[in-house]
Amino acid sequence: MNAEPILQLDQLSRRRAGRPAVQNLSLHLASGQVLGLLGVNGAGKSTTLSMIAGALRPDSGSIRLNGTDFLEHPELARQLIGWLPERAPLWPELTVSEHLVAHGRLRGLHGVALKQAREAIIERLELQPLARRLAGVLSQGQRQRLGLACALLHRPALLVLDEPANALDPVQVAALRTLIRAEAAAGTAVILSTHLLAEVTAVCDRVAILHEGTLRHDGVVQADDHAALERTFFQVAMQGAPQPARAA
Ligand SMILES: Nc1ncnc2c1ncn2[C@@H]1O[C@H](COP(=O)(O)OP(=O)(O)OP(=O)(O)O)[C@@H](O)[C@H]1O
Known about the structure:
Layout: E1 7-16, E2 19-29, E3 34-38, H1 45-53, E4 60-65, E5 68-69, H2 75-80, E6 81-84, H3 96-106, H4 111-124, H5 140-152, E7 158-162, H6 170-185, E8 189-193, H7 197-203, E9 206-211, E10 214-220, H8 226-238
Parallel strand pairs: 3-8, 3-9, 6-7, 7-8
Antiparallel strand pairs: 1-2, 1-4, 4-5, 9-10
Helix pairs in contact: 3-4
The structure holds adenosine-5'-triphosphate (ATP).
């Protein structure tokens, strides 16, 4: 494990539409860890993940990737991060395969390396039957799988997944869980937001709960202890009782 955490958020804040969306958020994540981000609608999960992915600039605070200030070196995001946004934007007139090529080029992959990366991710996410299909005609779940393939293509050190199980069928949800655990076992750090508590107990080592943009809980997840997580979620998120954040 690296001495520096792969991701370190320090006092991160961002206002949206004149209101605080994320306030003084401090979190860290080590290589190989899977952190689940929970919270009711509007709690600030997507805002947090967009800032980590470099798509939204914080108003204040810092983000460090492998110890380097990411706001001063935004090119780090392209190398180190794979991001699945909440609604992955796709070009409807490009095929699945062409999407992967375009994403690979944006991440600095070219020639043989790009071809190999594309073929590997198509095989891994079982996208062969869809490779020549236009993105504009994909089902929602198929679009989600393409978004996931784009996020994984360049083998990022940090995967940022915003509601990755959205629109996936039960077979694909099981495949997603296997994939996330395999990525973590290979040393990738993963941060994912979800509304599914079962997703957290199935794949996460740690859980952070946001409420009204602030961190209310940061703790270890007991594998498959759904009842304990549900209790914590309702105590912290629904009642919104301020609680001191606890480091994992
Ligand atoms: N594009 C936007 N423009 C203005 N305000 C926004 C925008 N997106 C989110 N917000 C506001 O920022 C706050 C945090 O929203 P965010 O989307 O980060 O929450 P979330 O926890 O991801 O919610 P959900 O579970 O509904 O996806 C909310 O008050 C929301 O209204």
